[in-house]
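pipeline/complex-builder :: batch 7 item 3
reading input block
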Amino acid sequence: MFESAELGHKIDKETYKSEEPALREALLEAQMDTLRLAKYPVVILIGGVDGAGRGETVNLLNEWMDPRHVQVHGMGEPTDEELQRPPMWRFWRVLPPKGKTGVFLGSWYTEPILQKVFSEIDDAAMVESLDRITRFEKMLTDEGALVLKFWFHLSKEKQKKRLSDLEKDPKTRWRVTERDWEHFKMYEKFRAVSEMTIRHTSSAEAPWIIVEGADPRYRSLTVGKILLEALKKRLEQGEAKPAAIHAPPLLPSIDNLHILKTLDLTQKLDKKTYEAELEKYQGKLNLLSRDPDFKKISVIVMFEGNDAAGKGGGIRRVTSALEARVYNIIPIAAPTDEERAQPYLWRFWRHLPRRGQLTIFDRSWYGRVLVERIEGYCSEADWMRAYGEINDFEEQMAEHGVVVVKFWLSISNEEQLRRFKEREDTPFKRFKITEEDWRNREKWGDYERAVCDMVERTSTDIAPWTLVEANDKLFARIKILKTLCNRVEAALDKVKGKEKGKKK
Amino acid sequence: MFESAELGHKIDKETYKSEEPALREALLEAQMDTLRLAKYPVVILIGGVDGAGRGETVNLLNEWMDPRHVQVHGMGEPTDEELQRPPMWRFWRVLPPKGKTGVFLGSWYTEPILQKVFSEIDDAAMVESLDRITRFEKMLTDEGALVLKFWFHLSKEKQKKRLSDLEKDPKTRWRVTERDWEHFKMYEKFRAVSEMTIRHTSSAEAPWIIVEGADPRYRSLTVGKILLEALKKRLEQGEAKPAAIHAPPLLPSIDNLHILKTLDLTQKLDKKTYEAELEKYQGKLNLLSRDPDFKKISVIVMFEGNDAAGKGGGIRRVTSALEARVYNIIPIAAPTDEERAQPYLWRFWRHLPRRGQLTIFDRSWYGRVLVERIEGYCSEADWMRAYGEINDFEEQMAEHGVVVVKFWLSISNEEQLRRFKEREDTPFKRFKITEEDWRNREKWGDYERAVCDMVERTSTDIAPWTLVEANDKLFARIKILKTLCNRVEAALDKVKGKEKGKKK
């Protein structure tokens, strides 16, 4: 894999001098066109061997391009705010918006590669990490991002020479750290792990480009030319067209039986039972939130449901059990322009709670496969890939100890009609009902199918859907509280290392 | 000051029961109207004595109002990301956007009060802190925010009883911490410092409202009614009208002599000297940025100047001296909608660098007193108050060890004309010149006056303006690099505790 990058590629001074100015001008122009178009971000990863010129290349890119629209991320040690969220959070928060360029010197590859080299993880875990990276990058490119991954290589001999040379010159001595030599001793190990990494993560959309790093002129010109070509090609394509879908259709409902039909919507609670249960589960939730171990987990509670199914009331019964400083509610409205300039899930990632916090999403990332699917706000390709992206997202949360609780509040068509009319007749509630609600009602069947597809594809062991029979508000609220208590309790038990058998 | 809050105010159960529902409904309605109007944020501060019901009140507000549009901030220990910025950064980052409500349990008062009680600061320092707070709150209300500050008070006797009662009940025991009792022992001290605080920071726009905290019904009803009245009154006013300006006019230029005229724009560097100096100062800047103590400071370099004065070129000569991961460039464009929903300075606060970083602003917060003043994008009241707000902003940076370097690049009217024409004639540069540039040129005199006012009012010892004679680009670039080197060097010297006499 690295053979071609050990041939001793070289560019002489004259060639470089004759080619550089035009390349530079063309790069700047392509960058400005990308900025003006503002339809996709450019993500550049710079990986490779120590001393192979990664830092120099980044500095050079900043000289060639307009540095005002390039963000360079060294990605050193994570901050404590970052450590409190899933590992990818720190990359999501600095993704470049559409039109801009983000250069990552340290990237999502750094951790797994170091872990593997220092034998902290085995092959299987490494493959799992790389697989996750591949899916993340697939998401980026599907969202339109231009992703360029450069790998700077040096043969062992060349690396040694380069480090020694740098060290000899008092001006560059600072560049060589003890860590560099330590890593050098493990050259073979690094090489093997790097090869594995490159092999597993070179996709059609985001292939690794291996560049011999020994000769600065060769290295620079190569990177510049590849970048220019990529920018131009992407500009020619303009706004990414939705990819054609070759996937088989979702399971058709030929017998008209589906999961929502299995719900017994007649379930009820009388007022007295309700009040007793409410006190019981609100008290329990309150206690759980004050458990010292609660500071070790975080909780996401997500509410989706039919219009007028009682999401607001359900949320209130949860929040009134909690100290105000423990929770935060994110009502999902139209995205802001900063959010529109990012991949779809960005506006949810940014709200992930730190440990000890509970965040309630009033509507959520499932909008993609519900309203956006039905109203055609996104292409079929977009919502079809959303299922997998959402599962990845939730898996990352779960692995980080975030309890993900998802509620679908289900009411019958007739009950919705009754509530709509009631809202219209109550002056105080009139603002809650709009023309749009009536229009949505006409698409009842579409929503039903979308919900069934959603549950089928995203109800997982780590983040299961709880379908809540909500024709009776009292019944629904108790089911919500009970479910939430159980999930939080189970998570705390897990933290405490108790037997899992205990949980209900 | 606390006398009226020690009278033993009480509301009986019946009165409360009869008044609460209407209050609650009216509050919700007022909140929704505020949200729909979306013209100003509501900032609620909850301060006061331990055990006086601060937490309960916040929980209650969240029950009464729609919690989806209320953000509660406990403001515990600052995170490491917060510690790397000036102390107010953590409050700026969570200010509620227009239409929403932010409730602060811990606030900008917490630190100074605790410091004073524990004698870490003297009276003078306390007054200084409080003065800064007053100015901050003035800025908030000038920006349209509705600011409500509640102080919950208990007499010493009542506080003791309340803590004991809470402790006796197993259900509420968790609420009383050792710290509460520790603080109780210092009741008198707290009382004195609180009084001083309230006295110094009760302004017409943001007065403290002292509420007796002993009786929950009295406390709740009082807060609810005050909040409701404030919301309604503010709604009646609608969008805040710019306050009339009673200030005397700025110094008129009756002899036509001003600071820009004192610049000798004929200053030049020949190419050879330039190249030698460039290497010298870029090298120096590079070394400075690699000084181990550089990690203890941060640097802000701000570029303002006439159109076509060479800001871009100046920035490049700075960045090409630095490792890409050390700096970040913020080009100031039109604000995003998230930025528009916040006080003017918010969009600059959010970009303050962490330690060890250098951030370059390509145009800056001075837009308020330059283009916005001249084009009438904001009212006279807005830009007149901006000078003071900006000085406060920069003072906070300076006190936190941020080196604030401000450049005004000045060219002559004739030189600008020459450069505009050159840009029009060069295909590659044509995109850099627009109709707007020509229009701005017609306002040369207005800009000149605005620049003079700006320099006069915002060039301070801690953040001085450097006027750069920029008719000769080479001269300008060297002056920029040299100034920057000197400022950074001085800051590093200060960190190292060296004699200040050494610096040039």
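note: The mean pLDDT of chain B is 92.
queue -> next item
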